Amino acid sequence: MKRFLNVMLCLGIMTVSASVARRPNFIVILVDDLDETQDSRGELAMPATKRLLRDRGVTFTNHFVTTPICCPSRVSLLRGQLGHNTNFTDVLGPHGGYAKFRALDLDREWLPTWLQKAGYKTLYTGKFIVDYTIRNYDPPPSGWTVFDALVHPFIFEYYSPAFSLNGGQPRMYPGGWSGRWVGPIGKGME
User: Long-range contacts: 80-87, Cβ < 8 Å, 24+?
Assistant: First the structure.
């Protein structure tokens, strides 16, 4: 169970809904620390994920990552650029962190803004960047119709997470679970 929680604490989920009926809806799921060391492939790891995805036929046998560090990898995926192009190469400053992310304007031209320009509504929930904290949650990154991210130091508090909805005052969810979305999902996504 602990290994499952280690994986799920790093879960970030993006959902995208089309404002025009012809466009498909899709979900991008970002996860961290899926490796042999944490036995994330073992039978006890991620039972819900296996039940909902693997057991229904979705598997990934050949996959790659631009950098094996959580936050730079997220930025690379969402920007469509490698870390050496974004200059965001670490979890914390001086080469990473939310302050650097904001200073580099990395949320100006990236996947959520491109999707919004195409008429989609976007939602992000879960871990964003480790250094998105109770001191710098406002303003949130641009491009999200709804942005509900875990805030540090509660990102790694499995059973008492804190989220900031759209840059608002962080809200604690005692007894909640950081790997499961506990906020008002869909609010603003109508």
Answer: 80/110, 80/111
Helix (H, G, I), strand (E, B) or coil at 14: strand
Backbone angles phi, psi at 183, to 5 degrees: -90, -170
**SS3 state of residue 144:** coil
Would you mind telling me the total number of residues written for the chain in this entry? 190
Which of 141-157 are b and which e, b meaning 16 or more Cβ less than 10 Å from the residue's Cβ?
bebbbbbbbbbbebbeb
pLDDT in tens, 35-62: 667 677 777 777 887 888 889 988 877 7
* Residues labelled as active-site residues: 70
Chain segment 69-103, per-residue pLDDT in tens: 889 999 999 999 999 999 999 999 999 999 999 99
